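Quick check before the chapter quiz. The format below is the same one you will see on the exam, so make sure you can read both the input and the output lines.
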Amino acid sequence: MSVEIRPALPEEMEEFARVGATALAMDPALFRQMRPEWTLCAFVDGRLATTYAAWPFTQRLNGRALPVAAVTQVGTHPLFRRRGFLRTIITRDLHARHEREDAPIAILWASLAAIYQRYGYAVVTRQHRYTIEPRYLQFAVPLETSGTLRPASEEEFPLLVDLYRRFRERRTGLLHRGRALWEHNALAPAPAGGARTIAIYEENGETLGYGIYRTAPGHYPEPGPGQQLEIAEVCWLTPAAYRVFWEHLANFDLVREIVWQRAPDDDPLPYLLQEPRMLNATLRDAILARIIDIDRAFAGRGYDAEGGFVFAAEDDLCPWNAGTWELSAAPEGAELRRANASPLFRAPIGTLAQLLYGTLSATEAWRMGRLASDAPEKLRDVDRLLATAYRPWCPDHF
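Here is the expected output.
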């Protein structure tokens, strides 16, 4: 058996789509926008066995923009599984990105988190799913609002882009979007028989938010309302912009259920409703991240405080990350350099990704057994330095 690891050629991309779709039980059309140079595949005796690719994206980490490799379309044809092809591909990709000083972080949506955690990935964002009837959108705390919603047209796309850029400015996990990513997620068309609505929130002549939703016939038993409303995205720059959008949705008498698939971990709605349990909220893991170059990753994120600490990293797959490091950080910038001092804590690379994104504080990670420290009372200083303005969240699927 001859095994070759290399990018797919342009003439092999149709087979790339077919194999990937077979492995993941997806529509082959979803694979056809990938460029050959962004792929890395395993070929067995000339036959494509494993697909793998990565979009070059930019992601916000506590207000700073950092390039990331957004891994996608990973799958092995069922006849070639359990042969170690994915481990070989991931290892080669991580090493190659390190050598050419490419993106210092890889991110992905996992079909199964267990597949990737063995390669040093860790869950860094979570999302909630809401399913609520419009009549339960009643609020426990009053809020005076002077703004209004208005419908937006396709020609106002630049306005949405500007609002999204302002919304993501201080956040962690949000991606910089091109038009294709907008159309794949927030601006995806409504299902057959449905309609998509873009609502802009304005206050005193200023645009401060938007909500995008799709309505369509549901599959509900009679009697009662028969429509379903799915929220595609909510973007708010003020509490009023958020509140007015949800108050608007309370008026949909023909809607049986409002569904939001990707609410952020720190979403305000559960803290505002009179009956938050009627959200029927469920929680699941979302984005996983893998640190490729630890020094550039920690130096590239934003910090709201000044300080530093010494820690030890464990990383078998990317040995250049292993060892003792000292972080010096301030709002103006940061540096991570090799250190000879005793580390305050020791952690595997997956836990360090969670600290990097602010998913866990160092104290929380110690309590969970995800890092080791002989002086856990001193981890509070680490918590303060690595705190993020918002909980990490990524509403875009890629």
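If your answer matched, good. Residues 152 and 198 are 5 Å apart (CA to CA).
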